[in-house]
UniProtKB/TrEMBL annotation:
It catalyses: tRNA(Trp) + L-tryptophan + ATP = L-tryptophyl-tRNA(Trp) + AMP + diphosphate + H(+). GO terms for molecular function: ATP binding; tryptophan-tRNA ligase activity. Pfam families: tRNA-synt_1b (PF00579). GO terms for biological process: tryptophanyl-tRNA aminoacylation. Belongs to the class-I aminoacyl-tRNA synthetase family. Residues 261-280 are annotated as: Disordered. Keywords: Aminoacyl-tRNA synthetase, ATP-binding, Cytoplasm, Ligase, Nucleotide-binding, Protein biosynthesis. Its EC number is 6.1.1.2. One of its GO terms (cellular component) is cytoplasm. This is Tryptophan--tRNA ligase. InterPro entries: aa-tRNA-synth_I_CS, aa-tRNA-synth_Ic, Rossmann-like_a/b/a_fold, Trp-tRNA-ligase.
Length: 397
């Protein structure tokens, strides 16, 4: 562990902005955040070595930890894993599913094992919702995870409360090295002891691929607000004599909410595009709510041009929905020139997003009974036993 990485450093909050897993406020300075968190910007060389994907190529994922270790394993065909989880606090939005599609690409290109943990415990503790409500979200979210189209041979989906037989004993072992001071330094104050314990659970998620299948580079693609969880896990993994290496991270910027910069929230009132929205709803939502970089009047726009850097429909195309760099550049140029209008740019984004959602929704609709569909993705008895034994907490009876 480098000294800049210490988890006992103060959490990322100062006069300008705050970023913790439970609070994002102010205008986020992404570069400053890396200094505070002790993570590294992605180099051009690293970007070039990744399986090609717009989220990496255009640096929505812009930083990381131990990325080279992961890339080496991916390149040489050695075992390597990706962990990308979901907190089921509500229906999933476009922004939530993009890392899952990135993980699918990594799996298809280099055979990465993918773990998708669902932290229903965390969301019960962090949000003012009943277990019934969280459970309902979890079931719907699971359908979306399944609709992404992971390879069941190489993918495991874990639900904290449903897979507690394996998650809980390992979390307890890891919690033995997690002090309240560390938790508070990293996350700020938590309301309950439940949330104080939760970092041990998420640390468990990040180590599971290695506990099940042996030491291997593990990459965690997450929005940068989740980095504290990775830091805690790395710290705890180093203190424990476990046969694992520290998980690496691929850290992402927040996707702007439809109404402009900031974090897309599933629990707030801000309008957003849900994965189950039909094409009319998507079109209506974007036409009515999407923040544009256009000018106040048509004449002014034609004359002075728009600003793609703040235009949310353009940003959606850039993040994910326009894979071709030349086409994207042409769209940006036309917009800056005033040849392309905000309304036209919106229609372009609507078309791409509805195409993407149509495919996702088709796969979702093809799913049958959830428990049956989930079965091939669940940890096998053998895998459970191995994880517990490797973690040094063999089953009692
Ligand atoms: N805590 C994450 C959230 O609130 C969800 C999550 C749980 C997760 N386990 C994870 C994310 C492991 C990445 C890796 O969204």
């Amino acid at each position: 562990m480098t000294d800049t990485e210490s988890t006992t450093e103060s959490h990322a909050t100062d006069a300008d902005f705050t970023v913790t897993p439970y609070a994002v406020a102010g205008e986020v300075d992404y570069e400053k955040l890396l200094e505070r968190f002790g993570a590294d910007p992605l180099t051009d060389e690293q970007v070039a070595r990744f399986p090609d994907h717009p989220l990496v190529r255009r640096r929505t994922f812009y930083a990381g930890r131990d990325v080279d270790r992961y890339l080496e394993a991916a390149e040489s065909g050695d075992p390597h894993a990706v962990v990308t989880g979901r907190g089921p606090s509500g229906p999933m939005h476009l922004g939530h599913v993009l890392p899952l599609y990135l993980a699918r690409r990594l799996q298809r290109e280099t055979g990465a094992t993918v773990y998708v943990p669902l932290s229903d415990d965390e969301k019960f503790l962090a949000k003012d919702q009943s277990f019934e409500a969280i459970g309902e979200h979890a079931r719907e979210n699971l359908r979306d995870v399944l609709a992404v189209g992971f390879d069941p041979e190489r993918t495991r989906i874990v639900v904290d409360t449903a897979d507690a037989d394996v998650v809980y004993p390992i979390a307890v072992r890891l919690a033995n090295h997690l002090t309240p001071a560390t938790v508070e330094a990293v996350y700020g104050e938590t309301d309950t002891v439940g949330l104080q314990f939760y970092p041990a659970v998420q640390a468990t998620h990040l180590l599971l691929p290695q506990l099940v299948a042996g030491r291997q580079p593990t990459l965690v693609p997450i929005a940068v607000d989740q980095d504290p969880h990775v830091r805690v896990c790395r710290d705890v993994a180093a203190k424990e004599a476990l046969p694992v290496e520290k998980p690496g991270a691929l850290l992402g910027r927040f996707l702007p909410s439809l109404e402009g910069p900031g974090k897309m929230s599933s629990s707030g009132d801000a309008p957003s595009i849900e994965l189950t929205d039909d094409p009319e709803t998507v079109a209506e939502t974007i036409r009515r709510h999407a923040y544009t970089g256009g000018r106040a009047s048509l004449e002014e726009h034609r004359e002075r041009g728009g600003d793609p850097t703040v235009d949310v429909p353009f940003q959606y195309l850039r993040f994910f929905f326009e894979p071709d760099d030349d086409d994207l550049e042409r769209i940006a140029a036309d917009y800056r020139e005033g040849d392309l209008l905000s309304g036209e740019l919106k229609e372009l984004a609507i078309e791409r997003i509805t195409d993407f959602l149509a495919d996702h929704q088709r796969r979702r609709a093809d799913l049958g009974d959830l428990a049956v569909e989930l079965e091939p993705y669940r940890l096998t008895d053998d895998e459970r036993r191995r994880a517990l034994e490797t973690a040094g907490v063999p089953r009692v009876p």
